Amino acid sequence: MATSYSSVSQRERNAQAFFPNSATHADQCRFVCIYPAYINAKKTRAQGRRVGKAKAIDNPTANEIRDILENAGLKVVLEPNRLYSREESREPQQRGRVRVQLKNSDETLIKEQFKTKDDLLFYLVDMIPKLKSRTGNQQQQQQSQQGGGKGKKR
């Protein structure tokens, strides 16, 4: 004989709001989540990339995302040990999640420039290659490619 342990039916549980009634947009549970895999050029769409391959970036990190969004004037929380569910690698470089507040508690946008998560992703794709850490690495790679020809054999 089946007994019901809950007074709430499955249908009623599914109809309930995902967030608590008291949660406002200023609460961290309402912040937008961004994983580095969303803008990683080395990932496929099935692996979680959300921007076009032509616009995506090679191996972005959660720290780079945090730095860019903090500089843009948004409230950002870095969760360094979080792992994207579609991420196959458990490496420390692949870890991290950034939570971003898009709206104030009165539901007004913090920045008019960032209305949706997609706006954030496209902004990140534009700004991450301009980071000093990225431009220094690109110059070193170009120099090694130019001088990387066959050397003298002794």
TrEMBL record:
Keyword field: Cytoplasm, Nucleus, Ribonucleoprotein, RNA-binding, Signal recognition particle
Cellular component terms (Gene Ontology): nucleolus; signal recognition particle, endoplasmic reticulum targeting
Database matches in PANTHER family: SIGNAL RECOGNITION PARTICLE 19 KD PROTEIN, SIGNAL RECOGNITION PARTICLE 19 KDA PROTEIN
GO biological process: SRP-dependent cotranslational protein targeting to membrane, signal sequence recognition
GO molecular function, one term: 7S RNA binding
InterPro entries in UniProt: Signal_recog_particle_SRP19 (IPR002778), SRP19-like_sf (IPR036521)
Region (Disordered): 132-154
Source organism of this protein record: Adineta steineri
Name of the molecule in the record: Signal recognition particle 19 kDa protein
